[in-house]
Specification:
By secondary structure, the protein is mainly beta. Helices cover 0% and strands 49% of the residues. The chain has strands spanning 4-7, 10-12, 18-24, 32-39, 46-51, 57-59, 67-72, 77-82, 91-99, 109-110, 114-118. Strands 2, 4, 5, 6, 9, 10 and 11 form a 7-stranded mixed beta sheet that branches. A 4-stranded antiparallel beta sheet has the order 1-3-8-7, with no helix packed on it. It is globular and about 40 Å long. The mean pLDDT is 96.
């Protein structure tokens, strides 16, 4: 079982930046693909960004050019750098992990979530 712990959420003004971190408790971190999701009040959870074990990335159209996902395999950590934040980015952000060999979306293991609020 992989445990994921997010951190770095908070309150930020529109146009500001935040970096989320997600630490994974596994010695096989490099064998996982990772992702960040978010869920705003009254809305379905949506995929924000993914990164493969090889470092290839993909983003939702709504965050392309503003959000950047990265991983540090030495620290068993995945990051989400969020720039030019908008009120519409307000949500609980979750990290997720799945074995790289498993096809489909990243959704086998989940963190507890971290709140991001964008407001003036």
């Amino acid at each position: 079982q992989v445990q994921l712990v997010e951190s770095g959420g908070g309150l930020v003004q529109p146009g500001g930046s935040l970096r989320l971190s997600c630490a994974a408790s596994t010695t096989f971190f490099t064998r996982y693909k990772l992702g960040w999701y978010r869920q705003a009040p009254g809305k379905q959870r949506e995929l924000v960004a993914t990164i493969t074990s090889a470092g290839s990335t993909d983003y939702a159209d709504s965050v392309k050019g503003r959000f950047f996902i990265s991983r540090d395999n030495a620290k068993n950590t995945v990051y989400l750098q969020m720039n030019s934040l908008e009120p519409e980015d307000t949500a609980v952000y979750y990290c997720a992990a799945s074995p790289s060999w498993r096809p489909g979306v990243v959704n086998d293991h989940w963190g507890q979530g971290t709140q991001v609020t964008v407001s003036s």
